[in-house]
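sry for the spam today, last one i promise. struct tokens for design, 556 residues
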């Protein structure tokens, strides 16, 4: 009979193999991509992190554009990637290093999934249940674990916390859980609802027979480090910038909530980055409820059944995500991005396995003979040779050799590389949405007009309608716009590169949010670069020759 340690170690291997395939495929994909294509393997917002990290390493401080001090990022992910930029200095080489880092984090995340599966006695069911998300992580370059943003680090923290919740509630377990949740808080500052949900379910499991007062003390003990982290970050923001909120939070809160409830509508109707045809919130709700009812049915009235308790945890995560989305919707008219829905990602990773376990309980007791003995006796390198080979083949076969016409990522990368060689060295540009890839590659200061990685002084100027003076002080001489033609405002039809339009017109920034807009007067004679329109996408650069005004446009 195998000891507990060896059984646990053996149970990890199939999950680690899945993670290894994804890590290798993603790394090979970015290594073999050309310079125009490799940035498209990350989300645009990842390049804000990359640009700020690069500036910190270069001695330019916490700035995106090298000019304006910004607090527009989550601190622990920034601290995690800073060593990468200290060691790897090349603009494209660092993208490979980030993929390697993301791959290691994804393997660690699946290792925690294996621990969860082992603790509830559903190792095979959970493994089969993870396959859809595992395939997504393997084949989609911008998949959530590999997008280059903070969620790639957040997922391992949260899964490790859930794994701890599946153990006995010793003092050591409670301490580990509180530290993991604090790390998750620093990784994503607005994850506090998720932190509270995990802590509440842990207390309910560990202190099922305790008094209400003892449960409350246990809950406070677990969440206290997370609350302390949020408090310290807020205090640091006040001392550093004079504002309680980070600049990105403040920028998105401008104009208040949307009367259209855009974020909630998006949550239930849009797929995020997943290759599905329904809303990620709706899908995760259906999956988690199915897992809950299936686990209750299979538990036969045993309320302390391990799979049932995990289904309660996942249900709590969905409720926390819904509450956080509703709060965001009430405070901001901005959309949410796919990597914000990390709870749904965890649900879709774990809940299908619970459904399989309830439907096929004998799956765990079946003896798998084919190749099992040879697999256990093989050297470690031989065990993982097949996942490595699959990863190399998939990564090479799905490499991106782009020409700039595939999507706005490749279009903006091509434009930035071209302008890097032609713009004056001292040129300062201004750009709103989609300025991540462009600003990272153009190697010129790009003042971010949405404000999410700009300074509080910029947002103050926007509120005073004094942006023109602010941009003049920054010596901004070019205005850049990347947009899909159907997404542009009706008043923006003039002054562009399209044939037959009026000579001059306007462009408005920021695109998102129901707040005051900056109004840029643009003329065809001032165009210094325009990309070839492809799939409705176009990037255009104008010489900034007219004052910047203000205008209010409501999306409601």
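last one done:
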């Amino acid at each position: 009979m195998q000891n507990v340690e060896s059984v646990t170690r053996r149970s990890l291997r199939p999950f680690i193999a899945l993670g290894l395939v994804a890590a290798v495929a993603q790394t090979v994909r970015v290594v073999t991509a050309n310079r125009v294509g490799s940035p498209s393997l990350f989300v645009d917002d990842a390049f804000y992190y990359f640009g700020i990290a690069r500036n910190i390493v270069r001695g330019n401080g916490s700035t995106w554009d090298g000019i304006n001090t910004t607090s527009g990022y989550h601190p622990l992910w920034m601290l995690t990637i800073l060593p990468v930029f200290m060691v790897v200095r090349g603009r494209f080489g660092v993208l490979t290093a980030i993929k390697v880092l993301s791959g290691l984090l994804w393997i660690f995340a699946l290792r925690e999934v294996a621990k969860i599966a082992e603790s509830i006695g559903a190792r095979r069911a959970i493994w089969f249940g993870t396959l859809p998300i595992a395939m997504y992580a393997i084949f989609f370059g911008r998949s959530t674990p590999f997008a280059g943003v903070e969620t790639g680090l957040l997922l391992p923290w949260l899964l490790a916390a859930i794994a701890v919740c599946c153990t006995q509630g010793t003092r050591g377990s409670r301490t580990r859980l509180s530290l993991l949740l604090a790390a998750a808080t620093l990784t994503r500052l607005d994850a506090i609802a998720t932190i509270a949900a995990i802590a509440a379910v842990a207390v309910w499991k560990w202190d099922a027979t305790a008094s209400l007062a003892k449960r409350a003390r246990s809950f406070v003990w677990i969440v206290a480090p997370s609350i302390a982290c949020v408090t310290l970050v807020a205090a640091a923001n006040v001392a550093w910038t004079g504002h309680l909120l980070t600049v990105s939070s403040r920028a998105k809160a401008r104009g208040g909530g949307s009367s259209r409830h855009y974020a909630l509508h998006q949550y239930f109707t849009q797929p995020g980055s997943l290759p599905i045809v329904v809303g990620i919130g709706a899908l995760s709700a259906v999956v988690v409820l199915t897992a809950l009812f299936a686990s209750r049915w299979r538990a036969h009235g045993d309320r302390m059944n391990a799979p049932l308790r995990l289904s309660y945890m996942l249900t709590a995560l969905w409720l926390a995500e819904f509450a956080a989305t509703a709060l965001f919707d009430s405070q901001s008219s901005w959309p949410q991005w796919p990597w914000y829905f990390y709870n749904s990602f965890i649900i879709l990773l774990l809940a299908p396995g619970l459904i399989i376990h309830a439907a096929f309980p004998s799956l765990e007791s079946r003896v798998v003979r084919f190749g099992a003995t040879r697999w256990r006796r093989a050297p470690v390198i031989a065990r993982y040779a097949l996942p490595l080979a699959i990863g190399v083949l998939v990564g090479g076969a799905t490499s991106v050799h782009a020409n700039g016409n595939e999507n706005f990522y490749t279009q903006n990368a091509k434009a930035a590389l071209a302008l890097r060689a032609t713009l004056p060295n001292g040129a300062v540009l201004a750009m709103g949405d989609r300025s991540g890839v462009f600003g990272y590659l153009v190697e010129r200061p790009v003042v971010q007009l949405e404000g999410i990685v700009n300074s509080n002084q910029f947002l103050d100027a926007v509120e005073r309608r004094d942006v023109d003076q602010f941009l003049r002080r920054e010596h901004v001489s070019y205005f850049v716009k990347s947009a899909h033609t159907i997404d542009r405002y009706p008043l923006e039809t003039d002054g562009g590169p399209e044939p037959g339009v009026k000579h001059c017109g306007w462009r408005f920034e920021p695109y998102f949010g129901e707040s005051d807009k900056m109004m840029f007067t643009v003329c065809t004679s001032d165009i210094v670069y325009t990309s070839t329109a492809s799939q409705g996408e176009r990037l255009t650069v104008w010489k900034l020759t007219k004052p910047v005004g203000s205008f209010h446009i409501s999306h409601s």
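Confidence is low (pLDDT under 50) at residues 1-7. ok im logging off now
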